[in-house]
Design a protein that fits this description.
This protein is 34% helix and 20% strand. It is an alpha/beta fold. It has a seven-stranded parallel beta sheet, sandwiched between helices. A two-stranded parallel sheet has the order 7-9.
Length: 230
């Protein structure tokens, strides 16, 4: 039975991946690591919830087949960026130290810049515009220097949306509709493109199933479609 370590497991994507694996009956031991382990309410015999502080103990005592590295700071204060990025990189060094067999590092398509007019491919120029994008790209560089080609990949996700992403524009609009508030849309032709969290989880689980072939260094996962508010 494979052993899978998921960091950031209590986040939007982490929980969706775990639910996907449980529903599909995958034969895998899931070690779900989180800074808020109490948020993980999923119960199954093959799920083991651990705190971030227990990750090295796990890696030193068990062979881990796949690391799904989701942990990364978002929407934090300026003082939290440095320790958050350091933690994300430290996990990769631990994976190298204890010889984790395959590494899936979840990055972001925002590293291509926020002003591009068309969908990016994996060879698009890197344009870093924030602590978030800079930190994500740093994790990719660390992977490149720590791990051999084929045993790791960087998954550059499009902007992901789900029921709990309250900061997304559609969520805000739907919330106003549910509350019976009047909607005022200025312009309305602004373009948005979102990746549903269930599709993101499906893609990551699919990738984990194909762990017996070399992976490319990076894969973009998203959609070429964009829609206006109207």
């Amino acid at each position: 039975m494979k052993r899978l370590l998921i960091t950031g497991a209590s986040g939007l994507i982490g929980k969706a991946v775990i639910e996907n694996l449980v529903a599909s009956g995958e034969e895998v031991e899931i070690y779900a690591a989180s800074s808020n382990p109490d948020k993980l309410k999923i119960k199954a015999d093959n799920i083991f919830v651990i705190s971030n502080e227990q990750i090295e103990k796990l890696l030193s005592s068990k062979d881990v087949d796949i690391l799904l590295h989701l942990a990364f700071p978002r929407n934090v204060s300026e003082i939290q960026w440095a320790p958050g990025i350091k933690y994300a990189i430290d996990i990769l060094f631990l994976a190298h130290k204890y010889s984790v067999k395959r590494i899936i590092n979840v990055s972001s398509q925002s590293i291509y810049g926020l002003q591009r007019k068309k969908p990016a491919d994996e060879l698009h120029e890197i344009v870093l515009s924030s602590p978030y994008t800079t930190g994500k790209y740093c994790t990719e560089v660390v992977c490149e220097n720590l791990f051999q080609w084929g045993i790791y990949t960087n998954i550059r996700l499009s902007t992901t949306i789900g029921p709990t992403t309250k900061e997304r524009v559609p969520n805000k609009l739907f919330d106003q509709i549910v509350r019976g508030s009047d909607l005022t849309i200025k312009g309305g032709h602004q373009q948005f493109s979102f990746l549903d969290v269930q599709d993101a989880a499906d893609a990551l689980v699919c990738l984990m199933r194909y762990d017996n072939i070399p992976w490319e260094i990076a894969y973009n996962i998203g959609t070429n479609e964009a829609h206006s508010l109207l």
